[in-house]
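Recap from last week: sequence in, structure out.
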Amino acid sequence: MAGTDHSFFDLDTVDEAFRKEGFYLFAGVDESGRGPLAGPVLAAAVILPEQPDLSLPLDSKGFSGIRRAELYEIITEQALAWHVASVDNHEIDRINILQATLTAMSLAVGELDPKPDLVLVDGLHPPPISNPVRCLKGGDRNSLSIGAASILAKVERDRIMDEYHELYPQYGFSSHRGYGTMKHREAIIKHGPCPIHRRTFKGVKEYL
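Predicted structure tokens:
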């Protein structure tokens, strides 16, 4: 069940606030890829040690690709447990992007070992899991755990889209990672959708 929005805490006290509530082994969860017109949506779940060698903010959108890759290595080396899960474009079209995102979050949390006694989720919608969940608006900026998850999800998704670029170079996936840029939209108009496009999304379905 979702709990209180703790986004009002100072940046360096959010995770500590939950520890004071009696939770010590908690996972941060965040997604990457809700908005693009192509490719999967990914979610990462991360359990950090009590005093990780990281600092806020860790919002993945605020770093260069090189810095995100560096942070990815730091986070995965320090984490007590982490997992990244993916839901592909076909499932996104079948169940819608929100449900696909929540599914990816559930899968990521389910693979953690040890199991967290609390899950902190960026956003307003809790995934369907049995663990206690707290949703934090702007959590990727206010929680080290969620911020770390945002880095892992973004780096892993970028790597996937770079691989898709090799298969479908005419769309330029390595530059926009599937988001609806002018270059991407022009490529869809010219070439039509490819197998990884989300066929229920505006900007794609018109050209099927």
